[in-house]
Amino acid sequence: MVSNFGFGALVITLVVSIYGIFAAVYGARKNSLAWVESARKAMLLTFPLISLVALSIIFLLVNGDYQVQYVYNVTSSTMPMYLKVTALWGGQAGSLIFWSWLLASFASAVTLRKWQRDREFLPWVIVVSLVTLVFFVGMSIFIENPFVRFWQTAGGSEAVAMFQPTGATPLVPFDGRGLNPLLRHPGMVIHPPMLYLGFVSFVIPFAFAIAALITGRTDDRWIRVTRRWALVAWLFLSLGLVLGSRWAYDVLGWGGYWAWDPVEIAAFMPWLSGTAFLHSVMIQEKRGLFKRWNMILIILTYSLVIFGTFLTRSGVLSSVHAFSQSAIGPLFFGYIGVTFAISLALLLQRWNALRSEGEMHSLLSREALFLLNNLLFMGILVVCFWGVLFPLISELFTGQKVTVGPPFYERSTGPLFAGLLLLMGVAPLSAWGHSTVKTLGKAMWKPFVVSLAIPILAYVLGVRHFAALLAFWLCAFVALITLYEYYRGVAARMRRSEENVFIALWNLASRNRRRYGGYIIHIGVVLMALGIIGIELFQTETQGTIPPGGQMALGDYTITFDKLDIFDTADGRNVARAVVSVERDGKYLGQLYPRRDYYYDSQQPMTIPGVRSTMEDDLYVLLVDWEPISSTGVTFKIYHNPLVNWLWFGGFVFIFGTLVASWPDKDPETVRVRSAKRKLSPSEVQSAD
Amino acid sequence: MNSAKKKPLPFPLFALVIGLLLVGISFFSVQAQNPTPSDNEVNKVAKELYCPVCENISLDVCPTQACAQWRALIREKLAAGWSEEQIKDYFVAQYGDRVLSTPPTRGLNWLVYILPPLIFLGGVYLVYRVLRSMKNKNSDMVSPLPAEPDQTDPYFSQLEAELEQHRKHGE
Q1: How far is CA A685 from the centre of its chain?
Q2: How many CB atoms lie within 10 A of CB A579?
Q3: Which of A281, A487, A517, B81 has the fewest CB atoms within 10 Å, counting from its CB?
């Protein structure tokens, strides 16, 4: 019943969306406001429709209607209610619906904005949003239908179909298989929606970019309208990545936070191109340069968003066979290929109109440094893309499977990340338009000299690792320069208007939130880098088997194995939970409870670490193995992860900075007026920054 | 070792070669007298190898039964005095190149290492060209921008004042 209702709503969504596309194109071509308005109504209608679809699935999940295959695959009766609801994005079919739902809501929200200044964009924004929606909804209807059910055919065999085959009776399994245990974690409940919000928000700037290409209105309007959308997309994507890392650290039980897994990289790639885009659009806004490049970046980001959506859920890139067997793989690649080609064709058509207005004056100007930043981000992107794709290519041509693992990514992206850090220090000191070695050196030498103190201090304290010393110096350099920028601004304000420190800081930041929010983000990155340096370069580990009362040592820490309990829980787990006492230099610090959960329904074990976390370091204890009968020997693995907490703390700072930068202005048009002056008086190029 | 050849040695022959090598090594090696290698020694080798069945998980952290057996195998080999390299070669011979954390540098695999730097260099060249062409176009022109203003307090107060003015005018 509910399945049929949900499926019906899904089909109507598809029909309405297709109508909307045609109405919008027709309205734009004939210059008919009525048709465009009709297309807008269709766009607005998709949101309630797809909401009905999503609510139908949630209803089925909550009521445990196991005849529905999707419900059977992702829930079981023992699961708590919140996991049943969030199982909407626990599998591929549901995720596609969830994606469509978010897209419909965002696209609807956009169509409700004021369009007086850019009316001509509206039909094409609708077209791009709806084409994307049609792709996902079509995928849901024809390939990954979340409403298909189990049937017992007249012949006695099992069948999976949307509608009752003749002579068949409904087949209702007693219980579902349950959600993948890895996903039964609060982090996993919010991590996918954050990523998806990020993915979907990037569709909006892309839609405006395409609208600009089609209408030929190739000024900065599309960038100004969508700047906040891009920042919001970036905010959610960053949040999703940080949450995902934290989840991996807490749940996956291998002592790390990032494994360069294709799924992680899939979410990372649109973030890379998106970050390049956020920096690069500033060049266009301030100096009128690189319009074509910005178009390429947003087109690339859109393709990578679709690619990422596909990769995170399907797993079909794991082998050529999985790829060729699934219908979804070729369809996704086809869609990405076609949209990419069309977008590029549109771009080529407007190639000359997108000529740079201004000119580059200095190789050390801020725009030149931003260009280098883009180059480095693209370099990392190429490494990631190639690393993900290569195993497939290798298998295709040689039949031999290969692993492209973390050492490949770490070695090739390490220097690029270091270069980005360096730019982060230098670029804020260079001016738009014009900088020379002299002006840059004058601005930089003080923070540079002071920053050298940090690696020297680290050396005195016994750090001999060259890469670590260099990285510590870079962090210190960027942090100092960023704080120095704040200091200069605040000091100037204080002197001028006799404000106190806090008011001066507040006024400074609220005057140019993108700039000072951006600096907060930079500080966040530096803090995160500290955590990454700590765990990547200084992680130590040990493993051993000890009897009750036995001890193991790692560095200054000693753990004592107190006891092991094995018991069943009400939600279908068998839990083995060890109790260990932690001491450091003979001082008792507390107990940790590393455990191994075995899920009966999905027959999967999960290793949950016991972690003692401080800003200085984490002690991360894993229960690896035990002797079931005698309990005489229990194997523990201990990791010592220095500084890793700074990664999470830096993540918070990073997100806070993004919020500062993206918080809506009271009057967004002030920015436009301000920048319009740029053409009147050249000095504004610098002051408007 | 035999990594340049497409086909690995037949296993008995391979084992014999390894075995003879080991006899030689164990004469001189103190390590070979160690009866049971510690977990840390096993993990050190397992870290370098990837689980032949799971995707992208190194052998030292993989929680499956199969991987526990492979770790036991590494322990056996270490106890028998095998070196890390020998064990890695053994795993490659048994399960293919995918057990290595990065593709071995031969044949098509070179692409994985060469292509990204090439594309990156292409990017560097492109950026260089763009910067050069813009500078050249501009070299005989008088810069329409004023030189870098003095970044001291007067500049900042001027900047603030100007921004304030534009805000008022703009609204």
Answers
A1: 33
A2: 17
A3: A487
Q: pLDDT confidence of A321, banded at 50, 70, 90? A: low
Q: Convert the pLDDT of each residue in A350-379 to its tens digit.
A: 988 888 877 777 778 888 899 999 999 999
* Interface contacts (A, B; CB < 8 Å): 179
Residue in chain B nearest A376 by alpha carbon: B120
Alpha carbon distances (Å) from A241 to A102, A191, A679: 18, 8, 40
Strand order through the sheet with A158-161 = A158-161, A149-152, A169-170
- Place A196 in a pLDDT band, splitting at 50, 70 and 90: very high
Q: For A354, list phi and psi in degrees, rounded to 5.
A: -95, 25
Pick the closest to residue A444 from A369, A539, A385 (CA basis): A369
In this prediction the pTM is: 0.86
Q: How far is A514 from chain B (nearest CA, A)?
A: 15
Measured between alpha carbons, how far is A115 from A415 in angstroms, rounded to an integer?
Answer: 45
Q: Which residues of A touch B134 (CB under 8 A)?
A: 356, 359-360
Average pLDDT, integer, range B134-146: 50
Q: Nearest to residue A619, comparing CAs of A580, A563, A564, A562? A: A580
Q: Closest to A493 (Cβ–Cβ): which among B55, B151, B160?
A: B160
Closest CA to B37 of B67, B68, B78, B87: B78
Write the burial class of residue B43 (CB in 10 Å: 0-12 exposed, 13-18 middle, 19+ buried).
buried
Query: Which residue from B113, B121, B35, B116 is spatially nearest to B80, judged by alpha carbons?
Result: B35
**Cα(B28)–Cα(B30) distance, integer angstroms:** 7
Contact yes or no for A670 and B167 at CB 8 A: yes
Q: Search chain A and give the residue with CA nearest B126.
A: A375
Decide if B97 and A402 are in contact by the 8 Å CB cutoff. Answer: yes
- pLDDT tens sequence across B37-73: 888 888 888 888 888 777 778 888 887 788 888 888 9
Which of the two residues, A455 and A325, has the higher pLDDT score? Answer: A455
Q: Cβ of B166 and A673 within 8 Å?
A: yes
Bridge partners for B87 per DSSP? none
Query: ipTM score of the complex?
Result: 0.82
* pLDDT for residue A630: 56
